[in-house]
Design brief:
Two copies of one chain form a homodimer. A three-stranded antiparallel sheet of chain A has the order 1-3-2. Chain A contains nine helices and three strands; from the N terminus they run αβααββαααααα. Chain A is globular. The first copy, chain A, is 62% helix and 4% strand. The first copy, chain A, is mostly helical. In chain A, a hairpin with a 3-residue loop joins strand 2 and strand 3. In chain A, helix 1 (7-19) crosses helix 3, helix 6 runs antiparallel to helix 7 (143-163) and helix 8 (169-188) runs antiparallel to helix 9. Chains A and B meet through helix 3, helix 4 and helix 7 of A and helix 3, helix 4 and helix 7 of B. Chain A binds a DNA duplex (30 and 30 nucleotides) through residues 6-7, 28, 30-32, 40-44, 46-47, 60-66.
DNA sequence: CGGTGACAACTTGTGTACAACCTGCGTACC
DNA sequence: GGTACGCAGGTTGTACACAAGTTGTCACCG
């Protein structure tokens, strides 16, 4: 709808929409429709989609369309294990260098989470926590670690967002608020090791809550196994699902 | 020169050429020239260059051209620290699953390194070691870790390749051969922890050799500092150098 | 009624032309 | 002589047209 978009902002917008399940896993994104939506031609759209494909959030299929990557828990389990290790690295590699302005932005998200209206909207909570995480990522001093953390966070965030309606949203909001508080306190002390410890603790707790919910309700997102194509080194064009949504 | 190229193979070819310094840091890559070289139009070239930009190997500048990312030792020091941690993760996260065919390919590279003609060509040695590394990366069981290891290896490999002519090439060859031997032995025992230990040992030794050479000969690749643009979260379009080569 | 083949409608990949932008050089002016 | 301006050449970004590919439908035939 809003015009005045370049390829970069389109990428960011699409990534957020995918993370927040506006474009649910398995849905088809047509370049023509996106071009009409953003008021540009297919060229910038293709650039954004290509980057999304590289980030592992969509898979383009010639003649079919660009499909939002389904949630593959077999793969995402590997991502979770990897992210757990990355969080430890944050404490080991980051010499904290947070600007006061960034701290203010984090305070903003803290207020946003704490002041959500009482019938808590999954969408609003997810949006606020995503923004908190994006701001927090910028506090990571080591650039490669920062880029990688950002990349794989956006691959796994959809799991929590999708599970959120079935979780205790009051509990989730309280957990997020407490995490932000503790992170902020550690950041003010310039203690990235403590930040990492806090992050790890809440990360593990979140995993446990989701796991309890999954084994209880027999997860909705089917763990679509991708055939283990080990012949192609760095290629992620193996999964091939349909299940269109529109 | 060779036709029958799609965007993907062009990307791989360009990445190897950049790693092997066929396109030295700071050189300008014109989309038109590349299109003529590969016998296609600018469209697939642009796709390959966009991926290279995302990998951090080139930076496109409108009106200027696409410049091969200069070697920024300030940044690459962070990458080295990160890769050191990644190597440890290989031991922690990888349940080894190497196919016999892959082992055979690694044997191939072992022979290639050991049978280099005696006035050792820097280029040939670098090429053989790069191929060994690419094959070895495929043995990493955790997919995110594999992707990240591959990405940041290609960002730092140029440093060693560029320094190679000034190093003792017999020593470098011997070191590479010994590393491959020990890695192969550990792989045959399905012992990824030992693989990681070996990798880390040789990685640190290589760093030390390069560091000795650098402080001795006052490195040629100027550590071009990039202004710390902390306002753009995931953006690497800050470095802006010229120093064209062709 | 079941199967099959052709076709229409959609998708993404590529080629081409043009617009926006930057650099460097020549020239006019001070 | 020095400086500022303007234009020519080259670069990447975008828009548009066409080629290649896939899917679903529907008529047709056994």
């Amino acid at each position: 709808m809003p015009d005045g978009h370049d390829a970069d902002s389109i990428f960011c917008d699409l990534r957020e929409r995918i993370s927040l399940l506006d474009h649910p896993p398995g849905s088809l994104l047509s370049e023509n429709r996106l071009a009409a939506h953003y008021g540009v031609t297919r060229t910038p759209i293709r650039r954004a989609l290509q980057r999304l494909e590289y980030e592992g959030l969509v898979t383009v299929a010639r003649g079919i369309g660009t499909v939002v990557t389904p949630i593959d828990m077999v793969y995402l389990t590997q991502v979770y294990a990897f992210r757990l290790k990355l969080i430890d690295l944050i404490g080991e590699l980051s010499s904290s260098h947070v600007a006061p302005a960034d701290l203010a932005l984090l305070e903003e998200q803290r207020r946003a989470v704490r002041s959500l209206p009482v019938p808590i909207s999954s969408r609003r909570l997810a949006e606020a926590y995503l923004r908190f995480h994006e701001e927090l990522t910028r506090a990571v001093g080591n650039r490669p670690l920062r880029e990688v953390s950002d990349r794989y966070f956006h691959q796994t965030s959809r799991v929590w967002v999708q599970l959120l309606p079935e979780l205790d949203r009051d509990e989730e909001r309280a957990s997020a608020a407490a995490e932000i508080d503790e992170v902020l306190a550690a950041l003010r002390d310039r203690d990235m090791i403590r930040v990492a410890q806090v992050r790890r603790r809440y990360f593990e707790r979140c995993l446990r809550r989701m796991n309890d919910r999954i084994v209880g309700a027999d997860l909705e997102f089917a763990a679509t196994r991708s055939e283990g194509g080990d012949d192609a080194p760095h290629d992620r064009r193996s999964t091939r699902q349909r299940e269109r949504t529109k």
